[in-house]
Amino acid sequence: MKNLKLKLARMEKDLSQTELAKRVGVTRQTIGMVEAGDYNPTLNLCIQICKSLDKTLDDLFWEDDSG
Amino acid sequence: MKWFNKKNNLDEMQELKLLKLESRGFWLAFFALFAAILIQIALYGPEFSEHAIGEFIVFLGMGIYLMGGCLKNGIWDRHLQASPAVNIGVSLLAAALTGLFNAIMSYRDYHSIGGAVAVFIVYFFMVGIILSVTLCVCTAFYQRRRKQLEEECEDDSTDTDNGQD
């Protein structure tokens, strides 16, 4: 399932995938795959992404049952 | 040396992919070696050891490394249960396949059905018994190791809980 919340949060911060990838210390491909829902990141990477985007884990990675 | 970096150049996704590729490579090599050994046994008969000793040592080494690593880490199998019934079932299947293979080789070389049946029976019982005993010993070791690892985890969590209190 695509992670649109992550994509939106990144765009709100005006960051490209490459810039976010650089901040959290991974490749652009990994960020792309997380956003596309093709890769489940580790908790450590989730936390790094959240810190970089000033969001919480719930904001970016929690799936609502109704959604 | 600028071309070599001690630091891992891969991120977690790439590391995971590389591990999967390495795992596939390992199993490919494992079964390719197994096939090569079987083919050389079929080609050379009892003298196969003169031709395939290298392959046999590498194959045995891979198997022992994998089994030792799994047992040490309390891992058995993805799909099979560590139970006497499953062990006996697997042993019988392997014994039957080994017996059949050797019976076919025997018939090819000596053209005697009686001899081939005798070879089948000998290999079936020999491999069946050795494999059953080996698997039972490994299962016992695995269960003991798993219990030990679980107890270590329980001790750690108790320490943490006490620390928090």
Q: What average pLDDT do the residues of chain A reach?
A: 93
Work out the helix count of chain A.
5
- The assigned structural class of chain A equals mainly alpha
Distance between the first and last residues' Cα of chain A: 12 Å
Separation, N- and C-terminal Cα atoms of chain B: 50 Å
Largest interface: A-B, 11 and 4 residues
Query: Low-confidence segments of chain A, ≥5 residues, pLDDT <50?
Result: none
Q: Helix count of chain B, per DSSP?
A: 4
Helix content of chain A: 55-70%
**Fraction of residues in helix of chain B:** over 70%
CATH secondary-structure class of chain A:
Mainly Alpha
Element order of chain A: H for helix, E for strand: HHHHH
- Seen as an oligomer or otherwise, the chain set is heterodimer
Return residue spans of chain B where pLDDT drops below 50 for at least 5 consecutive residues. Answer: none
* Total E-strand runs of chain A: 0
Shape of chain A: globular
Number of domains of chain B: 2
Tell me the name of the CATH homologous superfamily of chain A.
Answer: lambda repressor-like DNA-binding domains
Give a description of the structure.
- The complex is a heterodimer of chains A (about 70) and B (about 160).
- In chain A, helix 2 (about 15-25) crosses helix 3.
- The model of chain A has no long low-confidence stretch (mean pLDDT about 95).
- Chain A has helices spanning about 5-10, 15-25, 30-35, 45-55, 55-60.
- Chain A is globular and about 30 Å long.
- Chain A has about 70 residues and is mainly α.
- The longest helix of chain A is centred in the last third of the chain and has 11 residues, at about 45-55.
- Chain A has one domain (about 5-60): Orthogonal Bundle (434 Repressor (Amino-terminal Domain)).
- Chain B is mostly helical and about 160 residues long.
- Chain B folds into two domains: about 10-70; about 80-155.
- Chain B is about 85% helix and about 0% strand.
- Chain B contains four helices and no strands.
- In chain B, helix 1 (about 10-45) runs antiparallel to helix 2 and helix 3 runs antiparallel to helix 4.
- The relative contact order of chain B is 0.08.
- The interface of A and B includes residues 25, 29, 39 and 45 of A.
